[in-house]
Amino acid sequence: MTGEQGKTMTKRRYDPDASRLDILDAAEELFAEKGYGEVSTAAIAKAAKVSQSQIHYHFETKRNLWEHVFQRLFEEYFSVQSEVLDNTEQSGLDRMEASIRAYFSFFQVNPRFIKLMARAHLETGLGHTQQSGQLFSKGAEVVARSQEAGTIRNDVPPEFVVVGFLSMVSQWFQMRSKHLPPQADYGKLSDDAYLDFILKVYLQGITPPQESGSDALNV
Fold first, then answer.
1. Which residue of 26, 118, 151, 165 has the smallest Cβ count within 10 Å?
2. For residue range 72-92, what is the model confidence (pLDDT) as tens digits?
């Protein structure tokens, strides 16, 4: 350790909040880039310019640090999405649209989160938080009540309705660069254009089939 590094660490012992934030920032970047299993606490300590003992002091284990990184990114989305789903003044379809928009916007402004989520899916037991479970249950409940009210079709499980839009949104941000050809017109195939596609096709798909006239919605 150089004298300069020693001075930095000594200073940070007197500023635990700043040290904790530096650890979270470094861990977020490394976990998103390499995944949980490929990142050591030594590498995180080096990137954050702290000692490994500080990581253990603040977070105890690497697993606990991962969960704090994931949770920190998820908290803002949880707040916004909870407000959307709790808005009983809107119909079920309107809440589904607002929920899709909130989820899409979250990935747009938090590109690291989709990387963390993709990494988490490859490593058993990571990526699921109590809050994400709460949102899923709340979303399924909104769908179920809307099915009872006749505003969302009732011939599909509520859980599938939620999984459907979560998958359509997350897969776009994970796979768009792989699926779209290099010569693609990214003006027509932009994020906004894909969001418009989801809203048109998905919301129409969960609308109750018309009892008379065209059967186009009865998919």
1. 118
2. 988 888 999 999 999 999 998
